[in-house]
Amino acid sequence: MAFNSSLRGSRRKLKSEINVVPYIDVMLVLLIIFMAVPPTQNPSEIKLPSAERSTQPPDDYIQIAIKENAQLQIGITGKNPQPLEDVSSRSTLVTRLRDLHAEHPDYPVLIAGDRDSKYDDVIQLISEAKKMGITRVGLATK
Fold first, then answer.
1. Best label site of 48, 59, 81, 90, fewest CB within 10 Å?
2. What is the spatial distance between Cα 12 and Cα 136, in angstroms, rounded to a whole number?
């Protein structure tokens, strides 16, 4: 019995808990790294493409005007201007643009959209002009 009592005194208690100090150290280092490194992109910022102004505007061009109430006008502007004519629908405008482009294939197209006109109308006209093979399509600005 004396033997058993001496073994009990020399036995060590086993720790049944996890040492979390190294994990806390690693987490603090990661926290400092993520706080110190700035984000590469600001999500609230929109990067718009920039466009250069042409050095010399074209002498003659086909102009399409889009008014705020969806009125459409088309004509030739420049040295030999023709008055802008009102067009009733988009299909009529596309037909008239095709005719003017056939008469003057080297003329660029300038789209003048009113400030309150729909953005979609302008994009659709650019798309239609590109489908016809017109390579020079621009937007009028003040």
1. 48
2. 88
